[in-house]
Amino acid sequence: MKNSKILKGYLIISGLLLAYFGAAILLIPIELKASFDIIIPNDMNVLNDMRAFSMLTLMIGLFTVFASFKKQFTYSATLIVSVQFLALGCGRLVSVVIDGMPVEGNIIGMCNELFLGVVGLILFFIYKNKTTINH
Questions:
Q1: Contact 120, 78 (CB under 8 A)
Q2: Structural domain boundaries of the chain?
Q3: pTM confidence score
Q4: What is the pLDDT of residues 3-46, one digit of tens each?
Q5: Of 9, 59, 129, 130, which alpha carbon lies 20 to 30 A from 122's?
């Protein structure tokens, strides 16, 4: 897969966003969600689920940043991070349909996730068959 500056920038930005939110939810889930007007109960089962998912998000974010500097991982990282963002955005969209409108922060998150997922897929299809390296 060709390493373009645009693709590299997308992977770095996407990876840092996922790593940041993954780490924040892992370490301070109640406080982070409260900053978006979301009240999370201090329930060990809810927190356990949140921390488990946030670790996945953190690891995908770190892998994506790492992969932006290693061309042999660019293909996988672009596909994985795009699917991650699309899954998050689509999950939020399904929730809007089933549960109703959430707080503004979740709507903004959904729009950003869908945008980054679509951009990632476009970049994936543009660069997937190109084999030259452009540093």
A1: yes
A2: 5-127
A3: 0.88
A4: 689 999 999 999 999 999 999 999 999 999 999 888 998 899 99
A5: 59
Identify residue 102 by its one-letter amino acid code. Answer: P
> What residue type is 73 in one-letter code?
F
* pLDDT, tens digit, 9 for 90 and up, residues 85-131: 999 999 999 999 999 999 998 999 999 999 999 999 999 999 887 64
Q: What is the DSSP track for the chain?
A: --B-HHHHHHHHHHHHHHHHHHHHHHH-HHHHHHTTT------HHHHHHHHHHHHHHHHHHHHHHHHTT-HHHHHHHHHHHHHHHHHHHHHHHHHHHHH----HHHHHHHHHHHHHHHHHHHHHHHHTT---B--
Here the tokens at position 19 are: 């790593």
Which residue reads 């190109």 in tokens?
Answer: 130
Q: Are 35 and 48 in contact (CB under 8 A)?
A: no
